[in-house]
Structure formats: C-alpha cells, structure tokens
Task: structure prediction
Amino acid sequence: MAAPTRRGVRWEEPCCRPWGLLGGSGLVRAGELVASGTAQGRAEQASRLAPAPPIPAEALLLVLHPAQLGASAIPQTGCGTRAPRCERNLRNLCNHGAYFLAANSSLCGLAANNFFRNILHVRKASLVSALPMAVIPFLSTAVVYEVFVRQPLFSGELNCEVCAVVRGGLIGAVVGGFYPVFLALPVNASLAARYSSSPLPGKENLIRFWLTTAQPVFRKMSLGILIQLLTGLYLATKHHGIYLKVLQWMNTRGDPEELQD
Result:
C-alpha cells in the first residue's frame, strides 16, 4: 500500500523503517551510528589527504650519501646478491637523475637551434647562439624538476604517485622539450635580422611568417619532445619508488639516530 504524500514528501510507515520497531530509543541509536560512521569516514579521508611527515635528514644521508657515514650504514632494499651495485645505482639515479633530463633538454635546444639556423640561412655567430641554447635549458630543467618533484617528494609534501608522475612528465615535455624550441626562435630571429641572412616580413605578416618557419622545426622535434616526456615519467616513477623504499627502510630499521650510534 502506497504511503501518503504531502507537498512532494513521501511519508513512510514506522514499520517500514529499519528502526521503526525499536521505538524512540532505536531512532536515537540509529542516528548515533550514522553520525559516528560519518565522523569516522571524515577522519579517514582527512588522514589520507594529510601530507606524510618529512623524511629526516639523517635517513636521507644514510640512503643517498652513505660514504659520509661508513659502509656499514648502507641500507638494504631487497636487491638480493647485487645489493651494493643496486644501491649505488639507486643513489645515483636519485641524486643525479634530473641531470640526465637536463642534458636531454640541452640537446633539444642545440638541435632546434641548428634547424632554425638552416631555415634562416644564418652562418655566423654559431657559438653565440649555441651557448645559451645549451646552458639555459639545462639549468631551467634541473631547477624546475628539483623544485616541483624531487624536493616536495622527499620533504613529505608530495605523496601521490600519480601527481609526481604527472609533474615529471609535464616538466620533461614542457620545460625539457617545448621550451628549448621556443627559446631558439627569438635567438635565431635576432641573428637573422642582424646579419640580414634571410628576408624578414613586415609587421603585418610577422606572426604568419614565424608560424610557418616554426612548423617544420616542431615537426622534427616531436620525437625529442616525446623522449623528454617519457624520461620525465620514468624519473618521477623511480624517485617515488626510492621514496617508498626509504620509508620502508625507516620502518624496518628504526630511528636513524640510533643507527648512527
């Protein structure tokens, strides 16, 4: 039998409710259970969203620079019989992995600089154009990766693996791939205007001219940008894995200050 309705609200019989046969006390108890469950769910959600505590500097020193504390302080992370070599590779990847991404960025800058020089027929000042295209992308990529991926990861501010991987991929593609190409355009444009190596259009066709000039360069650099994207994803994934290994080692070995004693 359908329950009566009033102003669009459906009223149910007391027996149809799960606490209907319990009376008033059952209704109060059900409300308490719902409230406690909601509070517990909010507490669990807040604990999941809360940042993890930062890794102590002593633990990072033991893992990343064990030579300063002696060979006995080298932690084992499940590498089996190849533990010394495996640990050395992990430390090198964690300490110097961003430099590999930065070196690829320098190569992308030099390649884009060479493409623009050939299109604009620039034959002079090769060192003047190559030096900033090798140095600026290298420094920019290394600093941006350190600030937005490695430092937040090991300080406990970045716990999400997906967030770390996305950051690494974006830094590799944008800062390590697109940025060197965009940087090479004004450098070679200024050289072409200075040495009059190629006829430049007026202000009315300036944007169209540079878009037409940059299209073949971006097409040739698409493979390099893809490689930078994959390299950034790989580095961020490995760095997050090393971060988890450090946390696991801290939980199994105890306080790093006690290990030094």
